[in-house]
Specification:
Elements lengths: L9 H4 L3 H22 L1 H9 L21 H7 L18 E6 L9 E5 H17 L7 E4 L10 H9 L3 E4 L5 H11 L3 E4 L1 H13 L11 E4 L8 H11 L2 E8 L3 E5 L7 E4 L4 E6 L14 E7 L7 E10 L14 E3 L4 E2 L4 E3 L2 E3 L2 H7 L5 E12 L2 E10 L7 H16 L4 E5 L14 E3 L3
Parallel strand pairs: 3-4, 3-5, 5-6, 6-7, 17-20, 18-19
Antiparallel strand pairs: 1-2, 7-8, 8-9, 9-13, 10-11, 11-12, 12-14, 15-16, 17-18
Helix pairs in contact: 2-3, 5-6, 7-8, 8-9, 10-11
Length: about 450
């Protein structure tokens, strides 16, 4: 029996599975009716499908409900009540918080939240931080630029909610941020995996060992890297502490997280979200472990702009095991495995860029940055990997490329072309890295 101290909400996190499923069905039916009654976006979608909230009575009936994605939000917005349009479910004067998506996949989606919604955001993130061992003894540094993008806004408020001391590094550059972390003796911070590694490089350029800063834990989001074993290893070795992964989205919320028991994947926060895995070809639900499916999310308690069966475009698989921490919430094995819009066929082979990240980060001779480009060479697909040699390995391109070729052949069943670039010359990112380009499209 685990100590209850490891849970933010012991009742909800250890609820028997059958009771949890009953609760999820009740909450799903509630948000479905709310969206149908108050949102033109959802009402039009459901009327076109001939569905009413009363048609959903059982767990299996959930599959009848049409899915949405970002494009639905985009088409519904940019109209009155400005700018949320047909997606808004509350009077405009009840909206107290504005954010938007990063726009990396197209026109940004606007996200309105009421004060109740924003409290919900902070509560869901409190589960995340508590599970990762954040406590009131932590001084948490947030090295990101606070703006309209959601980024770590919710992490900031949740850290305050659980009584951490929070320090914003918004207007500082990378070198200034690591110096401030050192001066204040910060014990934790939150960043993308790319930026975690970039901050470690900045420390070294300043003549400091990142491990000497005294960081005890790091929360990652925005990229799948913290669930990629080789990337996680690089980060943990660089900083000498535990690194934990988290998954969420502006329009969905923070729905998945890793706990201190490191279950080999991400817990689904099932008291607040319904997470479905659907076969990418048939759309049928996947319940068995170790089978990849697309991730569809319902946020039960977000009211201003509901998220009901939203196709996240992420790909994941269920684990065959529950976590040793005692939480009864399911685990996504290995976290997010990639995105549907990044998984593509190259030379007839199904290819995910995440497999390349795992290979690159497994080799000490390589730096942290790389780029992938797929293009046509006549009628033949060509995939190019641009990489940087780590300092001290200059002149070893042939040996490195031979080793890379062996690893990538096993992982992807593909042959790559390689381009070596000077260390520090490839783009560096503070938020979401953009390392994959498919020029065939």
């Amino acid at each position: 029996m685990q100590s209850l101290d490891i849970y933010w909400n012991p009742i909800l996190e250890t609820m028997p599975v059958e009771k949890l499923r009953e609760l999820q069905l009740v909450k799903f039916k509630r948000i479905l009716k709310w969206a149908y009654d108050r949102s033109k976006l959802y009402r039009n979608l459901y009327d076109a499908a001939g569905l009413t909230p009363e048609d959903v009575k059982t767990w299996d009936d959930i599959r009848k409900v049409p899915m949405i994605d970002k494009e639905n939000y985009r088409k519904a917005q940019y109209k009155e009540p400005w700018p949320y349009g047909d997606s808004l479910c509350v009077p405009l004067e009840e909206v107290t918080v504005y954010h938007q998506t990063s726009g990396t996949t197209g026109q940004p989606v606007f996200q309105p939240d009421t004060w109740q919604d924003w409290e919900w955001w902070a509560e869901t993130w409190s589960y995340i931080l508590w599970a990762m061992g954040f406590r009131n003894t932590d001084r948490v540094f947030l090295p990101f630029g606070y703006n309209v993008f959601i980024a770590y806004w919710a992490g900031h408020y949740a850290a305050e909610k659980i009584n951490c001391e929070v320090v914003s590094g918004a207007l500082l550059n990378t070198e200034e941020r690591v110096l401030k972390m050192k001066d204040l003796r910060a014990t934790a911070f939150m960043a993308t995996p790319t930026y975690v590694l970039g901050m470690a490089d900045a420390c070294r350029k300043l003549g400091m060992d990142p491990r000497d800063l005294g960081i005890k834990k790091i929360l990652c989001a925005g990229e799948p890297g913290a669930s990629v074993p080789t990337t996680k290893k690089r980060m943990e070795e660089a900083w000498g502490c535990n690194v934990y992964d988290h998954i969420g989205a502006t329009e969905m919320g923070g729905w998945g997280y890793e706990c201190t028991y490191k279950p080999g994947g991400l817990h689904v926060n099932e008291g607040f979200f319904l997470v479905e895995l659907l076969d990418m070809e048939t759309g049928e639900p996947i319940e068995e472990p170790n089978k990849l499916g697309k991730v569809v999310i319902t946020a039960f308690d977000r009211m201003a702009q509901p998220c009901v069966r939203c196709d996240s475009k992420d790909v994941a698989m269920w684990s065959e095991n529950y976590c040793a921490c005692g939480r009864t919430h399911r685990v996504l094995k290995g976290g997010i495995q990639g995105r549907i819009d990044h998984i593509t066929k190259v030379k007839g082979v199904l290819f995910s860029p995440v497999s390349v990240e795992e290979a690159v980060r497994s080799m000490n001779q390589l730096g942290n940055e790389y780029e992938l480009i797929v293009k046509k060479d006549g009628e033949i697909d060509k995939i190019i990997l641009k990489y940087e040699l780590a300092p001290g390995f200059e002149g070893q391109e042939k040996e490195v490329e031979a080793d890379l070729a062996k690893i990538l052949r096993i992982k992807t069943n593909l042959n790559f072309a390689y381009e070596s670039h000077p260390y520090g010359s490839l783009p560096r990112y503070q938020v979401k890295a953009k390392r994959f380009r498919d020029l065939r499209k």
